[in-house]
Amino acid sequence: MTTEVTKRQVVRNTVTGWVAAGCRVGIALAIVPFLLDSLGKDGYGLIGLLGVIVSLSVVADLGLRQALGRGLSEKVVNQDVEGFRALSSTAMALYLGIATVLIVIQWVLAPWLASVFNVPDRLRDSAIWMIRLYGGASLLLSFIKPVFAAGLQSFLRFDSVNVVQTISVIGSGVLLFICISYVSISPLVVWAVVMFSVLLLDLLLLWILYRRRCFSGKLGLRYLDSRTLKPLLHLGSSMYVLQLTGAIAERSDPLVVSFFLGTAGVALYQTGAKLSQVLRPVVMMLSTQVYPLTTRFHVLDQQDRQKRALVLGTRYTLLFGVVVSAGLVLFAERFCWLWLYGVLGSDYVTVVHVMRLWALASIAEYAGAMHWPLLLGMKRMKFAIAIQVPSAMFNILVSIYLVGFTDLGIPGVLVATILTNLVRRPISIWYVSKVTGLSIAEHLRSAYLPGGILLLLLAAFHYVLRICPIYSWSMLIVFAALFGAYAALILMVLERQLITGMWRQWRGK
Hints:
By secondary structure, the chain is mainly α. The chain has a domain at 1-240. 87% of the residues lie in helices and 0% in strands. Helix 1 packs across helix 7, helix 2 (64-77) packs antiparallel against helix 3 and helix 11 runs parallel beside helix 14 (412-436). The longest helix is centred in the N-terminal third of the chain and has 56 residues, at 3-58.
């Protein structure tokens, strides 16, 4: 793949990713109040816990998901067709075995999980059967999909995955509105049936695209080769530790909230986190699709391109992320009042606090957006483990203390996350600078200084909102547009060389 073709594919991947994320934002804005009203706070909290249970079960994949993507990318670089098929088939067989064991465990532990998560008595039976049936079926599909997705992504076809996600998001939103409104059975049952049907469609579409674009997509018993798993498991063991501790630290937040405050507390947490969770992949779009390129740079010993990927990827991700996070912080109170006051009453204030803290915590993630794909491409995971494991444990312990034993309540889980990132991020910046041969001063100046300046200048918009309070959706849209224009003006000054170069390139054409 030539450099020009690669650039076009990256742009296509990014644009389709933004479209998919935009659809998620639109559907979330409409569906969250609808589900809160239809299911109640406890019911909405329950479906949030189901997602957490499935996502935490998935971390038992021995860290193979990211390692598989990296391994398949190396096969593609070397045009090793048979190796690609052997690795994909063997990973699929292993995944199916792991999923089967987890489904059995999840079935047996369902009553205990319902008790631990403080599910109300009136929802206990529903919770047990949803954990067993919907949770088990979803878990099985969640172990099959990564093989198809990793194969497509190893060919830089993130756009294919994005298109499937867009179809799924729109389909699930429309079906939930129609079915819950017009089907006269339990809304929880309707939700489970609709969401599982969409997951099946998602898997079918990925399989079709995989067969078309990934060396004919051949999988089968004849390709099984346990030897392909050795390098995968070697890298996967490191990935597993990182994946497990990271997932427990972040996804344990609703579990901690549920333990102390019940499913109603989870509903408030999930609602406040929703926009940041949906928007974070939009901001991280470049970094999440770059690991095949960092793998290629490492295999071909292109160190200068590694450095450039690190600096530019971090710089532009952080600039974009600062705009998004600052906007959420500034507009959270009026947005949540307009969006949720009619459904939640005064509880909307808790949602505001969660939304703002999630936005601040996300900035630290954007600052390290390129660290993970860079270290993965270079197979340098030991240091990541050394910093991730203790910080994740610290995060969990502080979360438990702040939520259960202080007056912070639900927002305490995010205060813990922010404190953890303040410690962890500078260390990871130092290490990534070291392994790439980039001086820390140059790294900070080129990658982080523009984002810091942008954040300070955007914070000044707070005074505009104090002078002109917002009382309607139309006013919110107008002021959001003014904020966007203000941010664009600052970016034009900070990134004038990039914009000038793009303008000259366009005129040259």
